[in-house]
Write a structure and sequence with these properties.
The complex is a heterodimer.
Chain A: H1 2-31, H2 48-55, H3 57-90, H4 93-108, H5 111-140, H6 151-176, H7 180-187, H8 192-221, H9 224-229, H10 237-245, H11 252-284
Helix pairs in contact in A: 2-11, 3-6, 3-8, 3-10, 4-6, 6-8, 7-8
Chain B: H1 2-5, H2 10-31, H3 42-45, H4 51-81, H5 84-95, H6 102-113, H7 118-125, H8 128-136, H9 149-174, H10 177-185, H11 190-201, H12 203-219, H13 222-227, H14 235-243, H15 250-274, H16 277-282
Helix pairs in contact in B: 2-15, 4-9, 4-12, 6-9, 9-12, 10-11, 12-15, 14-15
The chains are: A mainly alpha, B mainly alpha.
């Protein structure tokens, strides 16, 4: 009797916390179907903002930039992070410890510090490079492209804050792996390349997948680092939302978030159902 | 074999040198130099003017962290006590809001807390203002919520609560249950079990949660701008203004960023001091 009451209480409490977490999101979703342009007054159901959204070049452009930079950064960071994790794993402790500390810096640092430091670095490096180009042009009539903040720097920044998350997800899987497996594969006639692809990679695959998922999440959600590294011409969705909040946020933004949220929801449900099935299949075996 | 594999890390080590270490060195150089290039400590002494912003940032971030802990620990604990199916759904539900951009979620709070927002509409619909006005003889039409420190704290708690729940949850779930049983066998009641066994063992999760909430809270600039209505300036706003805003002065901005970095290093040192922080931070 007593325990069931405690259980009820704890579920009620969790329910309240979930309500707190989801109330604003529900609000966004509901008002994306609003006929009026307010987030407060309901003027009837309409898909007006969805049609508007697909005609808005600026918002669609920023969605495209966000998805492109997130996908590219995830792919690059996952590959680079997996290799780096394997390298760190194979390293002597004396080297690994300081390198892992440096690796942790971007994760531990406040986003704004990472953003500002990358911004300073890019601006200073490009200033030096552009100066060199000018000098080459004036004295040798040689030319090279001048560099500015833009999509390239945005991508570099995203890759560099994603890699640590990949490494930290792959590392534990490497540690769990039986060290003899690789040797066994080689004894059985694999080259070390084959041993790597056929034994090591499948063993650490769950870590790679979760690392990639986290990297993608971080990329899509990032605002601060993008804000400092994208320059003035490139804009991610978060950046265009931020510039809108200075005036007035168009309900189109509600519509695009509803679509993204729906996509993520479907994806997560699929991933979890598949995982649960996999576990059940394992149990049966 | 093993040594050959360690070469895999070489490209990333170079990458880190360029995009992690070099930018931080730049910040340090900028913080200690003038626009002309000479060495100076002025950037640090000038921060004195902004003492009120420093105290406000720390105060609001500490309050937000404490609130997150007070809400997050019970949630994590309750989650860990449930069955595996419930746990899976609950942890997905906690992660899910992070997929809606935080600016948007914060903006949604704006329309809840506004002068004519949903909350004030709700209060006037249930006649709360009439009640207050008739009781105290005042003439309140709405509660002012945007632009108060409370709104900023709410925004921080809302945005960073998952960062508190998940690390604590991942520690409690891995807790060796036989320790709890042993404590019970030795005569501890449930309060004592919690106090002497569960709580001390979940300390690494708490510490990593506290860092993961405190660091972004103290450095935020979007939340304070949206929910603080421009009156609640924080350290993040200050830095942003020095780089991209009106008060362009990257040297001063770097100095403030450096101070913030030192704070993070201290937090990290504290975490490593108390236990395996590295492993816990993995759980996003």
């Amino acid at each position: 009797m007593k325990t069931s009451r405690i259980r009820l209480g704890s579920r009620l409490f969790m329910g309240l916390v979930f309500l707190f977490l989801y109330a604003p999101i529900l609000l966004l979703i509901i008002f994306s179907f609003n006929a009026g342009n307010s987030n407060v007054v309901w003027k009837g159901f309409s898909l007006h903002w969805y049609t508007q959204l697909f005609q808005d070049r600026i918002v669609m452009g920023s969605v495209y930039t966000t998805l492109l930079v997130s996908l590219l950064a995830t792919v690059i960071a996952t590959a680079a992070g997996t290799f780096a994790a394997i390298g760190f794993y194979a390293m002597k402790r004396r080297w690994r410890t300081p390198l892992m500390t440096i690796n942790n810096i971007p994760m531990m640092n406040a986003d704004i510090v990472t953003g500002v430091s990358l911004c300073l670095f890019f601006v200073a490096t490009f200033a030096g490079w552009n100066g060199l180009v000018t000098w080459l042009e004036t004295s040798y009539r040689l030319t090279a492209p001048r560099l500015y903040l833009g999509f390239g720097t945005l991508l570099l920044a995203h890759v560099s804050f994603n890699i640590p998350y990949v490494i930290l997800n792959v590392m534990p899987k490497l540690r769990q792996m039986d060290k003899n497996l690789l040797d066994a594969a080689q004894d059985l006639g694999c080259t070390w390349m084959q041993a790597f692809w056929k034994v090591a990679i499948p063993e650490i695959k769950p870590g790679i997948v979760s690392g990639a998922l986290i990297a993608f999440t971080m990329s899509v959600d990032d605002f601060v680092i993008s804000y400092f590294t994208a320059g003035s011409a490139t804009s991610t969705l978060a950046m265009s939302i931020y510039s809108m909040t200075k005036k007035r946020v168009s309900p189109e933004i509600n519509a695009i978030s509803t679509l993204l949220f729906g996509a993520v929801l479907v994806l997560l449900v699929l991933v979890n159902v598949m995982e649960a099935r996999g576990e059940q299949a394992k149990k049966r075996r | 074999m093993k040594n050959k594999l360690s070469l895999f890390a070489v490209p990333y080590v170079i990458w880190m040198a360029l995009l992690v270490v070099a930018p931080i060195v730049m910040v340090v150089i900028y913080a200690f130099s003038t626009a002309g290039g000479g060495f100076t400590l002025d950037n640090f002494t000038r921060m004195g003017i902004y003492a009120s912003i420093f105290t406000r940032s720390f105060k609001l971030a500490l309050i937000a962290t404490a609130v997150c802990l007070l809400i997050g620990y019970p949630v994590a604990y309750a989650m860990a006590k449930e069955g595996p199916g419930f746990r899976r759904v609950a942890s997905v539900l906690i992660m899910l809001p992070m997929w809606v951009n935080f600016l948007l979620r914060t903006y949604a709070w704006m329309s809840i807390l506004e002068k004519n927002g949903l909350l004030n509409q709700f209060f006037s619909a249930i006649g709360l203002f009439d009640l207050i006005n008739s009781l105290f003889g005042t003439n309140i039409q709405y509660f002012k919520m945007i632009g108060t420190p409370g709104a900023v704290v709410l925004g921080m708690v809302y945005n960073y609560l998952p960062f508190m729940i998940l690390p604590i949850y991942s520690v409690i779930i891995k807790l060796d249950h036989s320790l709890v049983e042993a404590a019970r066998d030795l005569g501890a009641n449930s309060t004592q079990v919690f106090e002497k066994v569960i709580f001390p063992l979940s300390l690494p999760g708490i510490l990593s949660g506290v860092t993961m909430v405190f660091v972004p809270s103290v450095s935020t600039f979007a939340i304070s701008r949206l929910l603080g209505g421009g009156t609640q300036m924080m350290l993040g706003d200050l830095i942003e203004q020095q780089f991209l805003g009106g008060a362009y002065n990257p040297h001063l901005g770097s100095a403030i960023a450096l101070v913030m970095m030192v704070i993070v290093v201290v937090c990290m040192w504290l975490m490593n001091h108390f236990g395996e922080g590295e492993e816990q931070a993995v759980m996003l």
